[in-house]
Amino acid sequence: FYRLFEAEKCLAAIDEFLVVDLQMRLLVLLVLLPFVGSQKVRMRSTLVCKNGERIEGRCVCNVDYVGRHCEKKKMCDTFRRYSNGTCLGCLEGYTGEYCEEIVCVNGEVDKTGLTCVCKTPYSGLFCTDLDTKDVYRFYNNRAYMLGPLGALCIIPMCGLFYGCERMARKRQVKRVATMLGDQNLTVTKDAVKSLLAEDV
Q1: Which of 97, 136, 170, 184 is the most exposed, having the fewest neighbouring CB atoms within 10 Å of its CB?
Q2: Is 35 within a domain?
Q3: What does the alpha-carbon distance between residue 169 and residue 142 come to, in Å, rounded to a whole number?
Q4: What is the pLDDT of residues 132-184, one digit of tens each?
Q5: Domain count for the chain
Q6: pLDDT, average across residues 30-44
Q7: Ramachandran region of residue 57, left (φ > 0), alpha (ψ -120 to 50) or beta?
Q8: HSE on the CB side for 28, CA within 13 Å?
Q9: Residues 189/169, Cβ–Cβ less than 8 Å
Q10: Sign of the four-CA dihedral 124, 130, 132, 135
Q11: Cβ proximity of 102 and 114 under 8 Å
Q12: Taking a C-beta distance cutoff of 8 angstroms, is the pair 76, 90 a contact?
């Protein structure tokens, strides 16, 4: 009998706690509700539409723009559009229903969604460009991290680079000499070399 009495007492205490807890939650909700509403109004009033107008708390974008703030330009390949404004096709490097999403081939889209953050040694708008100096800098840094072993790796690369440059120069001289020979002009290779070496 005593245990039953204790159990009933415990249940009554839990019920009382739940009622008080519910009352506290309602009180907190009633106190905070005006502030939450004013915060939403304040957020709507500070909404910035980059390429459009703010109407009734939201952005209405100009013809060639989309996005919450009208920040993304439609990159359609033609001026023709479907009736809902979507593109018939996208320019190279863009995708999406409105061609507003940039495609980063060797990188990731930044947090704005407008540009790419390229992986090393890639660069360019879509992370597709490989500049020679960036490639060499990338591999030089890799070789530097390897220490003495890296130096052993870089020596053949330097030799390969200079060998390729020399072969390319020889091919260029040969092409120019052949081209001039086709026009019935007799020119020595030394003359072509000196001609190509001059800064114009």
Answers
A1: 184
A2: yes
A3: 29
A4: 788 878 877 777 777 777 667 667 777 877 888 888 888 888 888 788 777 77
A5: 2
A6: 52
A7: left
A8: 6
A9: no
A10: positive
A11: yes
A12: yes
The helix (H) or strand (E) run that includes residue 136 is: helix 132-146
Amino acid type, 53: E
Task: With beta carbons less than 8 A apart as the criterion, state whether 55 and 41 touch.
Answer: no
Tokens found for residue 70: 């009208």
Domain membership of residue 66 (yes or no) is no
Tokens of 94: 């863009």
pLDDT tens, position by position, 61-103: 998 899 989 999 999 998 888 888 888 899 999 999 999 999 9
Give the pairing of strands 107-109 and 65-66. Answer: unpaired
Domain annotation covers residue 176: yes
Q: Which of 186, 162, 189 is nearest to 174 (CA)?
A: 189
Neighbour tally for 168: CB within 10 Å: 10
- Whether 37 has a pLDDT exceeding 80, the answer reads no
Domain region containing 19:
1-46
Q: Are 59 and 47 in contact (CB under 8 A)?
A: yes
Cβ atoms of 126 and 117 closer than 8 Å: no
Tokens of 59: 């952005």
Structure token pair of residue 62: 């100009």
CB proximity list for 69: less than 8 A, separation 6 or greater: 47, 48, 49, 50, 59
pTM above 0.90, yes or no: no
Cis peptide before 156, with omega less than 30 degrees from 0? no
- How far is it, in rounded angstroms, from Cα 24 to Cα 1? 35
